[in-house]
Write a structure and sequence with these properties.
Strand order of the largest sheet: 1-7-6-5-2-3-4
Distance between the termini: 57 Å
Strand content: 15-25%
Number of strands: 14
Number of helices: 11
CATH superfamily of the largest domain: inorganic pyrophosphatase (n-terminal core)
Radius of gyration: 20 Å
CATH class of the largest domain: Alpha Beta
Shape: globular
Largest sheet: 7 strands, parallel
CATH architecture of the largest domain: Alpha-Beta Complex
Length: 348
């Protein structure tokens, strides 16, 4: 296994290492994490473009889970990004496999255990234990799309409008307008692609048409959200797509005097968690691992993280009990032994 922390002076080294992996290959399967977000989608598209235009290897984009969030569906549709449900993939048709915005061993990627991984691109806090021939990472950048953008520019690949739009939106979304865990390289990549992107499409992706389901789940979130001091807890119950959970965590963190927001929701037989903080050194990925009590099904960054719990008993009664346990564990881990939780809207 070869691991490269992609810094500006190692971009050519990464390209050479990619050539070593793709040389002799004819078909590349690029797998994003389940329920892919804009960073995963754009990173996948960027790697596909690099593989096809620079290395001459045809590539397919695949993912597990759903494309449930309106923003993500709109992005894929408007930018003509073809995504394949991994359930329809015949792995025997591909002689090279890559992961983007995740890494082997994480609980958020739908891959059979026997599949050999050739290439990994990720920017998460830890890639320890990632088993692949080539792992390219850098946790100091705010988006995986930034790493792929640097490679495209170095390789002098033509950035067509839809690709430039995807990368620009991914960096903007992942770093929340370049204010969350973004560094100079994210800004530079964004400024390189933004002038070549479609401003109209960026606006449409950022402000998509929303379904009745979204407003129903928002109403549930508002009615069930509770707070104590600087903590916000949002139990959503059963949701139609896990992506709404992260969206609600982002939303409720914006409430005044809140510095930590945890949203949880049940999808199928699992409970999904999304944690957000406005503390730059919050190490949210460590907090979520302690809450989930598992390092495989939880991870992320300093200011945002996610996880999943797969209880043996997924009955409605047990899920409600688990919600309460997570709420109390959340407070204890952040230094509050006994929190007096109060409804967010108790005075309305």
């Amino acid at each position: 296994m070869k691991k490269i922390s992609q810094s500006p002076n190692k971009i050519k080294k990464v390209l050479n290492a990619l050539e070593g992996q793709l040389c002799g290959g004819t078909s590349l399967l690029i797998v994003m994490h389940d329920n892919p977000d804009p960073d995963a989608i754009a990173s996948g598209l960027a790697l596909k473009t690099l593989a096809e235009s620079y290395f001459g290897v045809q590539a397919t984009l695949a993912h597990g889970g759903l494309l449930g969030r309106a923003e993500n569906r709109t992005m894929a549709s408007l930018l003509n990004i073809e995504l394949t449900d991994i359930k329809h993939i015949d792995f025997q048709h591909y002689d090279r496999i890559a992961l983007v915005d995740t890494f082997p061993g994480r609980g958020n990627v739908s891959l059979p255990e026997h599949i050999h991984i050739h290439i990994v691109f990720d920017h998460h806090a830890s890639t320890n234990g990632a088993e692949a021939d080539l792992v390219v990472y850098n946790s100091k950048v705010g988006a995986t799309a930034t790493l792929l953008c640097e490679l495209l520019i170095e390789a002098q690949v033509d950035l067509k409008v839809d690709l430039a739009t995807a990368i620009a939106y991914a960096i903007r979304s992942e770093t929340q307008e370049l204010r969350r865990e973004a560094n100079k390289r994210d800004v530079q990549a964004y400024l390189m692609v933004y002038p070549q992107s479609s401003f109209t499409k960026i606006g449409a992706i950022a402000h998509p048409i929303l379904s009745d389901v979204y407003f129903r789940e928002l109403a549930v979130a508002l009615s069930r959200a509770c707070r104590f001091r600087h903590l916000m807890y949002v139990p959503l119950g059963y949701v139609e797509s896990p992506e709404i959970i992260a969206e609600m965590a982002d939303f409720f963190l914006r409430r005044e005097r809140i510095s930590w927001a945890l949203a949880v929701g049940n999808y199928q037989t699992s409970m999904y968690l999304s944690l957000r903080t406005n503390k730059k050194d919050g190490r949210a990925f460590r907090v979520i691992q302690k809450i989930v009590q598992n390092t495989i099904n939880a991870g992320g960054h300093d200011q945002f993280a996610g996880g999943r719990i797969d209880p043996e008993d997924a009955s409605a009664e047990n899920m409600m009990l688990l919600e309460e346990q997570i709420r109390d564990r959340f407070a204890v881990i952040l230094g509050i032994k006994k929190a007096n939780w109060r409804p967010l809207l108790e005075n309305f």
